[in-house]
C-alpha cells in the first residue's frame, strides 16, 4: 500500500516552505513518526514525521524546492511486506507491552521550536502504582509547564530523569513495569539517527535561505554559528551574526558575570540558593535583549479616570448579568489603544532587517504576573472585539496563565502590549518592550489627587500612563500623539463610540 507524505500545517499566515534536508533516501526503511525531512519557513523549522512504517518510496520534492501547504513530499510503501525500520540501540523495550511488560515514559511534544525542558516536579516515586493517564511529572520549558501522563497502568519502576534534569524532546523520563495488555510503549523518537552523526558543520548542508542571506551580507559559513540539526546554519543564525557585526566597535562586548564576592561563613549558612527556572531565565534574556537591541524611550502622561469609572459603575451590574463577566478597566484601555494605533500605526509595527512591517490588525498582549514569572498571553484581533469579548478573553487567558496552562501559540504573534502594574500598587514605572514589538503601555495605580478643573481645585481619580517605544521606528511626535489619543478616549469614552 502506498502512503503519501504531505506538507503539514505550517502555522498562521504561513503558506509555503522550503525543503531543507532529507534524512532518508528511496529504499530506506522508516518507522512510524521517524523524521523524514526538515522544512524551513520564514519563521521556524518544521520536521516532517513518517505517517507509517514501511520503505521510503519516491521523493517528490527535492532539497531546496519550495512547496505549499499539503503539497506532496514523498511516498512510503507500507504493508506486511514492508521491511521493518531499524530500532534505536538505546530503546530497551521495542516490542508491544503485554501484561508484566514495561513501557517507557517519553518526553511529550513540547511545542514548535522547543527542543528541551527541565523536569520540575515528580508526582510519583519509584514503587508507586500508577493508572493510565495519571500525572507522573511536570516539565518546564521556556514558556509553559507540560504535564506528563502515564501511558499505561502499572508500577513506576525507574525514574531516568530526576527533578532538575534537563531533557531533550526525545528523552526517556521513566519506566513503568507490569503494564496492562494493550498499552503500547512510546515510539522511540531517537530511532532516526542523524544522517551524519559525527559530521562537522562543514559536512552539513546549510538551509537554502541561510545561504542566500550569507551571500547578501557578505559572510562566510565560518563566521556564523549554526543552531540547526548537526550544526546547520539557519536564516535566524545569519540574522544574529549580522546584528553582532553591526554593533558599534566602540561598544565592548559585555563581560562574563563577575564572580560573586566572598561571603562570611555565618552569612552563607543563612542563605538559600535556588536555581533559576527556565521561564525566569528566558524572561531575563528577552528583557536584556530588548534593551540591547531597541532604542527604548518612555513618554508619560496622566489620565482622569472619572468618566470611565462613572460609566463602569453605571453599567457593571447589567453588563455582568448579560455577558457573564465583570466589566473591568482593561477593556477600556484595550479599546483606547486599538483606536490610537489606527492613527499612529508605527507603534503597532516592527522592524525586520531594513524593512518596517506595519500590522493592519491588533493582537494585544496583556502582561500577566504568575507564581512562575511574567507571561504575556495574546488577545488576537482585539480591534474587532466588543467590550464583552475582550473581558472574556482577558479573564480566560489570565486564568490559564496562573494555572500554567498557556500554550506556545497563545503567547506568540502580539503586536502591542499593555502592562498593568497598578494592580500591585505601582504609581509610575517605565515598562520594557516585548520584542519584536515597538510599543508597550504601562498602566498604574488610580490615586485621588487635587487637579485644577476650569479654574477650580477638585479631587479627581488620576492614573499615570507610560508608553515605552522603540525610537528607531517611532518618533517622539508619534509616541506623544498615541498617548494623548489614549488619554482623550479614556477621559471621554463616547469618543470610542463615535470613532473620534
UniProtKB/TrEMBL annotation:
Domain Peripheral subunit-binding (PSBD), chain residue ranges per copy: 205-242
Catalytic activity entry: N(6)-[(R)-dihydrolipoyl]-L-lysyl-[protein] + succinyl-CoA = N(6)-[(R)-S(8)-succinyldihydrolipoyl]-L-lysyl-[protein] + CoA
Listed pathway(s): Amino-acid degradation; L-lysine degradation via saccharopine pathway; glutaryl-CoA from L-lysine: step 6/6
Highest rank taxon of the organism: Bacteria
Cofactor: (R)-lipoate
EC number assigned by the record: 2.3.1.61
InterPro entries hit by this protein: 2-oxoacid_dehydrogenase (IPR050537), 2-oxoacid_DH_actylTfrase (IPR001078), Biotin_lipoyl (IPR000089), CAT-like_dom_sf (IPR023213), E3-bd_dom_sf (IPR036625), PSBD (IPR004167), Single_hybrid_motif (IPR011053), SucB (IPR006255)
Stored PANTHER family: DIHYDROLIPOYLLYSINE-RESIDUE SUCCINYLTRANSFERASE COMPONENT OF 2-OXOGLUTARATE DEHYDROGENASE COMPLEX, MITOCHONDRIAL, DIHYDROLIPOYLLYSINE-RESIDUE SUCCINYLTRANSFERASE COMPONENT OF 2-OXOGLUTARATE DEHYDROGENASE COMPLEX, MITOCHONDRIAL-RELATED
Name of the featured protein: Dihydrolipoyllysine-residue succinyltransferase component of 2-oxoglutarate dehydrogenase complex
Species: Ruegeria arenilitoris
